[in-house]
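Hi R.,

Quick one: here's the Cornichon sequence you asked about.
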Amino acid sequence: MAFTFVAFCYILALILTAVLLFLVIFHIIAFDELKTDYKNPIDQCNSLNPLVIPEYVIHIFFTVLFLFSVQLGAVLFNLPLIAYHIKRYLSRPVMSGMGLYDPTSIMNADELSRAQREGWAKLGFYLLSFFYYLYSMIYVLVSS
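And here's the predicted structure, written out as tokens:
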């Protein structure tokens, strides 16, 4: 059982995917609080917007590590969500700071529904990723 760079990439991706899962769960809870009028949109957007860029950077970071370790299956698995993140960030509302969520438009029923669907889809993707990385990590550690 050898510890290789590929195993390191999968272990790091596993840990970082757990972090991404917590971020996505926080987003889902925040949008539910907005839907039920538990929190005001300005405070909620101020707490959500700083988490957007770290989520994107973490996801791109371990995908680049997979690229360096020539794990093309993992890279191809992650590329659609990275492309969506880039498209979503480039088409974000005009704001003074970084982030995706505008307090004036987030309470729109369509925007809130889209944000919730996006959160649930990301949760599913990151859960699937977590178990894929867990399986791949075990496979790499056992087979080498």
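Residues 5-143 form one domain.

Cheers,
M.
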